[in-house]
Amino acid sequence: MRFPCALLLAAAALAGCSQLQPYTTYPRAARAGEVDAGPRVATCRDPLVSSLDDAQRTAQEECAANTIATYSSTDWNLQNCPLLLPARATYVCVPRK
């Protein structure tokens, strides 16, 4: 009887942790042959809970004034993002025209 209760409690705790909002982290470096149009920023997010729009808003806050956070790529490298927010979305801060 204790095992099912403990399992239920652990599942509830993990479900609550996955409600974390996207936050900034180190961006992915430009790939070979890729031209950087500006500085890069990245966000960690849970793709089941938060959308790319949520991540873009967080990235936009990190970009300088008069720039737009433009989506570049997503990777799943757990060295930069924790297990509960495994997707790292990288954006380039492109100057506004």
Key attributes of the depicted protein:
28% strand, alpha+beta, four-stranded antiparallel sheet, 97 residues, 2 helices, 28% helix
Quick description:
This protein is an alpha+beta fold. 28% of the residues lie in helices and 28% in strands.
Structural notes for this entry:
The chain is of the alpha+beta class. The chain has one domain (20-95). It is built from two helices and four strands. A four-stranded antiparallel sheet has the order 1-2-4-3, covered by helices on one side. It is globular, with a radius of gyration of 17 Å. The termini are far apart.
Span from first to last CA? 64 Å
| SSE sequence, one letter per element | HEEHEE
Strand order of the largest sheet: 1-2-4-3
How much helix, percentage-wise, in residues? Answer: 25-40%
Secondary-structure blueprint of this entry?
Elements: H1 2-17, E1 23-25, E2 40-45, H2 52-62, E3 67-75, E4 87-95
